Amino acid sequence: MSRNDTAARTDPMRVGVVGVGAMGENHARVYSELQDQEVDLAGVVDRDAAVARRVAAEYGTTATDLETLLERCDAVSVAVPTPAHVETVTRCLEAGVDVLVEKPIAPTVEEGRQLARRASETGQVLQIGHIERFNPAVQTVADLIEDVEVIGIEAERLGPPVDRTARGNVVFDLMVHDVDIVASLLGSEPDSVTAMGTDDGQYATATLAYDDVVASLTASRVTQKKVRKLTVTAAECLLEVDYLQQSVLIHRDSYPAYLVDDGTRRYRHESVVERPRVDNGEPLRYELESFLEASRTGSEPEVTAEDGIRALETVQTIDSLVAEDEPAAEREVEAQ
């Protein structure tokens, strides 16, 4: 159903979810919670009919097929497995329906570009589900770094798998979040990339070099503690982000001091630590609200297809390096 005169829309926004596994079910939940914002969850689709019926019953909607859903909806979330992104998203766009597709945008960069072209041709909104962009702590840091000289960035995304029998790609599943965050903070693509991995690729590190900034990323499914942290080193301060706590610390004016205690001389560093206000909330809700606003107005989404392609290009480079057998020192390649 094509979007008509969205700026003057007064009736509820009709939305749906295609693929209601773990992530897709959360999309259905949040859409159902947005009824006070004139949002109507018109239906859900899943290849497992029993799962679709269960989720539909949970969130007060109906389970249906894709063709019927697209006839009902103005916008949909697509949370199907990545190999099905191209076919599913293309069908949605050609039906005149706006799409938020979970990351990565597509299995390959060329297929991602194909989807970007199709969205442009149909005039539909295509937003990529890089959810950490909408973490309130990240948005706070994005504002703060506008006034500082960034030197380096470190990101850690570590922990054991939720399902210990699953061994998905740690670069595509986890590191991609931080690849996108770094790109959005710096506003550019890396000049070069080095990477290595261990434990059958379940632990990976990458170093991304920009003009005067170095970003070091680590992702792991074999670390027995869940860690989601981002550290930005600037000439003026050090910014620490805890994704899980949605908190930001700013360290300034660090200086050494010598203390005498009971005749013993001790050395320590002291610094001023600031805690800027962070308006905490669920990143997925913020992401879907942003998508629906772009759909209502026909404006450019906050995370564009081009952003998704840029992240995919970088993680493909990292993944290819992690998979190689050569020594790490031989793996540096020019980023595409």
From TrEMBL:
Alphabetized InterPro entries for the sequence: Gfo/Idh/MocA-like_OxRdtase_N (IPR000683), Gfo/Idh/MocA_Oxidoreductases (IPR051450), GFO_IDH_MocA-like_dom (IPR055170), NAD(P)-bd_dom_sf (IPR036291)
Molecular function in Gene Ontology: nucleotide binding
Pfam family, one: GFO_IDH_MocA_C3
Domain of life: Archaea
Gfo/Idh/MocA-like oxidoreductase N-terminal domain location: 13-130
Domain GFO/IDH/MocA-like oxidoreductase positions: 163-232
Stored PANTHER family: BILIVERDIN REDUCTASE A (PTHR43377)
Name of the molecule in the record: Oxidoreductase
